[in-house]
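Module 6 notes. Inverse folding takes a fixed backbone as the condition and produces residue identities as the prediction. Think of it as a translation problem where the source language is geometry and the target language is the twenty amino acids. Below is one complete input and output pair. Work through it position by position during the lab.
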């Protein structure tokens, strides 16, 4: 647990530092190295917005295939990101939506199973205080779309999560640093957080930071969010974000570190590579040992969570 806390603090500090990168430029692909802007573009007045959608499919079917394998498999992974900003004089409004959902169906799974499920909406009102710094009121709401299950012997056995179980809402006051449109850092020493488990199936469990018999809990703590994007070259882009929260009252803490690289092959097709790292001390890990031929649910300590995705398919930015 001590190692987890150390990693949590290091992530908060390191993500805010601007690193120095040496780039080896291929003369055949670089059109004008002198005009490259490593630190992004200035924030424009008025409305600016953008969005990207990546959908990757894979399918396979085998009949009397000598080397064996799944008779049938079908997979889909999708990632949607959108942002809208409005700047006028000293005022800046920002809003970001991130959503991901994935499914897998094969002969051995006996139906579709989730491979990804998450959405988060973050918005803020900002008033410029000095050069590159803003006073900020920020809110965030996040959860997932559908039920998540544990599978024992290929069959759904236990519901682990669902829509707004877990879910949380945050509202805080803080300071935002933003010089260019591709990087922002928000730090709040005063953020209210409501953790929720609204589904009655979890009512009598102490889980997701909510006591048994209750549907929500309140905490007050510190929150930080960092967003960074970079156009490595015209057809290759990186986007990353880090959320981190520490509660003063309940001593709960969590972070979510998201990374995505998009490679644009043409107008409608591309490849994407994602790596997410998360930790939440209110979400225990579970094992299902077999005792007397019955799978028994055993709760363990919270563990670091990792998610890696690779997709090759439909990709569109607008």
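Target side of the pair, the amino acids:
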């Amino acid at each position: 647990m001590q190692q987890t806390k150390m990693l949590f603090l290091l992530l908060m500090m390191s993500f805010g530092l601007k690193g120095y990168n040496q780039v080896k430029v291929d003369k055949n692909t670089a059109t004008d190295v002198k005009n490259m802007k490593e630190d992004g573009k200035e924030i424009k007045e008025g409305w600016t917005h953008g969005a990207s959608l990546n959908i990757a499919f894979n399918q396979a079917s085998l009949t009397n295939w000598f080397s064996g394998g799944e008779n049938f498999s079908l997979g889909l992974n999708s990632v949607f990101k959108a942002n809208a900003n409005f700047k006028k004089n000293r005022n800046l409004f920002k809003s970001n939506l991130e959503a991901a959902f994935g499914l897998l169906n094969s002969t051995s799974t006996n139906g579709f199973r989730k491979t990804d499920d998450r959405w988060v909406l973050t918005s803020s009102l900002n008033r410029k205080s000095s050069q590159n710094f803003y006073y900020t009121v920020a809110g965030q709401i996040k959860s997932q779309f559908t039920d998540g299950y544990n599978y024992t012997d290929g069959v759904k056995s236990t519901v682990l999560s669902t829509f707004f179980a877990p879910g949380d809402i945050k509202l805080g006051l803080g300071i935002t640093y933003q010089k260019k449109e591709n990087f922002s850092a928000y730090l709040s020493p005063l953020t209210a957080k409501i953790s929720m488990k609204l589904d009655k199936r979890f009512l009598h469990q102490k889980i997701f930071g909510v006591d048994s018999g209750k549907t929500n809990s309140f905490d007050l703590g510190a929150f930080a969010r960092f967003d960074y994007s970079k156009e490595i070259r015209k057809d290759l882009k990186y986007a990353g974000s880090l959320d981190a929260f520490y509660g003063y009252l309940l001593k709960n803490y969590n972070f979510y570190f998201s990374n995505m690289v998009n490679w644009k092959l043409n107008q409608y097709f591309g490849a994407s590579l994602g790596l997410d790292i998360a930790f939440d001390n209110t979400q225990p890990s579970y094992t299902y040992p077999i005792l007397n031929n019955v799978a028994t649910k055993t709760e363990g300590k919270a563990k670091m969570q990792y998610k890696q995705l690779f997709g090759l398919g439909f990709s569109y930015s607008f």
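Reference fact for the lab report: Residues 5-39 have pLDDT under 50 and may be disordered.
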